[in-house]
Amino acid sequence: MNNNEVRRFTNRFLKPYIGNAILFFLLTVLATAFSVASIFSVGNFLQILFGTDSQLPTAAPSFAEDVMAQIYNQIIIYGKVNALWIFSLLIFGIYFLKDLFTFLAMYLISSTRNRIIRNIRNTLFKQYTNLSIAFLSRYRKGDLLTRINTDAIEYDENVLKSLQSLVSGFVMIIIYLGTLLYIDWQLTLLTLVIFPVFSALVSLISRKLRRDSKTLQQKSAFLTSMIEETISGLKIIKSFTAIDIMNNRFRHFNNSYTRLRNKVYRRVDMASPQSEFFGNVMVIGLLLLGSQRIISVTPTLSAEMFIVYLIMFALIIKPAKDIATSFFNIRKGTGCVSRMNEILLADNYIKEPKTASMFPSLTTGIRFEDVCFEYNDGIPVLRNINITFEANKTTAIVGASGSGKSTLIDLIPKFYSPQSGSIFFDGVSIEDLAAKDIRSHIAMVTQDTILFNDSVAANISFGSNDYSREEIVRAAKIANAEEFILNLPQGYDTIIGDRGNTLSGGQRQRLSIARAVLRNADILILDEATSALDTASERLVQEAINRVTTNRTAIVIAHRLSTIIAADKIIVMDKGEIKEVGNHQSLYAKGGIYTHLCDLQNYSLTNV
Predict the structure, then answer these.
(1) What's the CA gap between 152 and 125, in Å, rounded?
(2) Hey, which end of the chain has fewer CB within 10 Å, N or C?
(3) Are strands 553-557 and 394-399 parallel, antiparallel or unpaired?
(4) Contact (Cβ atoms closer than 8 angstroms) between residue 569 and residue 589
(5) pLDDT in tens, 368-425
(6) Which helix (H) or strand (E) covers residue 275, if one does?
(7) Within 13 Å and on the Cβ side, how many CA atoms surround 174?
């Protein structure tokens, strides 16, 4: 991932909170300033507690020491015991203000980080709903879940938290370092010589961290996908006695993932002890050098100020260590940015017109002219489709699996765009119509019924909150669903579980039909709505279908020919092409593909 992508991501999600970042910076400056004041107060406290009239030579007082001396003289006149109490209260006030500003800074930046992650997730979720189905089908479900959940958290923990540490760390280092330079600039400059060596050693560890971190996130996404697929397909796994195979497969990949995770975190964890080691080396060096500057014949530093110097230098080690660790974590977190950007920067939308036309009152029908379509693999799925789905009539599509039936009808709601050819709604090109407008005139019932973990009523009225309970009940009755709904524990208010798993297949399908009835759309698409049902459920569902297709533009895909023999038109597809068109009688009489399909199901003219 290049720096431009990181910059775009940062500008998109972090730039709106630049004001919060500035306020956080100011609060951190105030907290650090009071921290410095508390350190200087230690010198006065020690002077009150251990002050002597030593005749040893001392360094010439600095401005800071003059200020400290004036404070000392103002307080010591009350006596040593009272001075200790007064000074303790003064130190308490300084620490209170330091902690107050520290809390305000942390409160502000924590809420800001949470808002940024909220915005990232909202944007990713919206992107998932806007991107074409063809684009999203390239990814595993678990991979998409990982990007919106795990990757977002990783970005917060590694990048946002590290940026917070960098800001506070640089503020502390600048203020502390400026104070150290003021106290003894020669001693401070001498210690700074070690920092370039430290930085060079740190870079040796972090060189491969960014690349390894991206690989780690990819493996994490694959691991999530593997778990999701195993749980979803547990019945098949158990029935084919493949538990050991799946366990071995998961164990092998999980071991590989763990080894990479160890490798990445080993590099990250090395940053802290490494920086602490160098910090300790510098403290030892300071003790030696500073002591010589105090006890020399011509001292350049007082004992009180050297104690202040040592305390402040000890405090500078942690932010310096945090900065080093933060650079590691930011490198680690850029892998998450790369994966999220892969979705956020994707430009795979269905083309929408700049000025959309009104959806026409469908009187003629939906016309396909020389339509060709292929997925990303480049293999043609539809070839030269020329057909009209007549308005207010039922058109059935039959053919072997993989013949392109479902792909053909997926072009109508603009789920995909054809590579060539045109689709017209009563003469208005699909390219001139907004996808949302087209879909608002279509109701779909699919073989894989999609229901949500909500009430029966909410699933029937899905897509709008404007339906009354009376309208929902009427739709359920038309769909032959009223009887079983009333037998549920809370009737229409019963929660049906994830994907409606508390209901049978036929019950789920009838709820899906009730949803289509309630939508009252001009166009009804039924994609193998009865293929997975038993005979009794099929009869109930078919009765409901017969009701809802009356006087509508209905398009029905069916494997069971018994469900479509009364269709006004039947289209026979094979290998992405339309081979035969007609009604049941005419097609059966031809002795072609349709006749063969009927014979396989023991269905002929005698069944009409």
Answers:
(1) 12
(2) C
(3) parallel
(4) no
(5) 999 999 876 677 889 999 999 999 999 999 988 888 888 899 899 888 888 899 999 9
(6) helix 243-295
(7) 10
Q: How many angstroms separate the CA atoms of 188 and 279, rounded?
A: 14
In the predicted model, is pLDDT for residue 211 greater than 90? Answer: no
Find the Cα–Cα–Cα–Cα dihedral 364, 369, 375, 377, rounded to 10°.
Answer: 170
Question: What is the spatial distance between Cα 136 and Cα 126, in angstroms, rounded to a whole number?
Answer: 13
Which residues, 6+ apart, have CB-to-CB distance to 203 below 8 Å?
Answer: none
How many CB atoms sit inside 10 A of residue 133's CB?
Answer: 11
Domains of the chain plus CATH, in order, are 3-344 (1.20.1560.10), 362-441+525-532+555-608 (3.40.50.300)
Reduced to 3 states (helix: H, G, I; strand: E, B; else coil), residue 253 is helix
* Rounded Cα gap, residues 303 and 321, in angstroms: 27
Map residue 487 onto helix, strand or coil.
coil
For residue 52, the model assigns a pLDDT of 45
- Torsion angle of alpha carbons 431, 433, 436, 442, nearest 10°? -100
Q: How many residues does the chain have?
A: 608
Q: Which long-range contacts (CB under 8 A, 24 or more apart) does 227-233 make?
A: 227/142, 228/140, 228/141, 228/142, 228/145, 229/140, 229/141, 229/142
Q: How would you label 163-199 residue by residue, b for 16+ Cβ within 10 Å and e otherwise?
A: bbbbbbbbbbbebbbebbeebbeebbeebeeeeeebe
Are the beta carbons of 533 and 544 closer than 8 angstroms?
no
CA 18 to centroid of chain Cα atoms = 22
> What pLDDT, in 10s, does the model give residues 318-362?
787 788 778 878 877 777 888 888 888 887 667 788 888 999 988
- What is the C-alpha separation between 571 and 392, in angstroms, rounded? 17
Q: Mean of the pLDDT values across residues 552-569?
A: 84
Residues in CB range of 13: below 8 A, 6 or more apart: 116, 119, 120, 123
What single letter denotes the amino acid at residue 329?
Answer: N
**Nearest partner of 396 among 219, 529, 240, judged by Cα:** 529
User: In whole angstroms, how far apart are CA 398 and each of 71, 156, 445, 564?
Assistant: 96, 51, 16, 9
Helix ranges restricted to H, 345-419: 405-410
- Residue 280: strand pairing partners: none
* Burial class, 143, CB count within 10 angstroms (exposed 0-12 / middle 13-18 / buried 19+): buried
CB 418, CB 384: distance < 8 Å? no
Amino acid at 262: N
Residues 509 and 266: their CA atoms lie apart, in Å, by: 53
Mean pLDDT of 532-549: 69
CB atoms within 10 A of CB 131: 16
**Residue 484 CB: number of other CB atoms within 10 A?**
17
DSSP code of 455? B
In this structure, which amino acid lies at residue 43? G
Q: CA-to-CA distance for 372 and 383, rounded, in angstroms?
A: 5
Stated as kind and residue range, the H or E segment containing 579 is strand 577-582
With contact defined as beta carbons under 8 Å apart, do 293 and 300 qualify?
A: yes
Task: Identify which of 412, 378, 381, 379 has the alpha carbon closest to the alpha carbon of residue 395.
Answer: 412
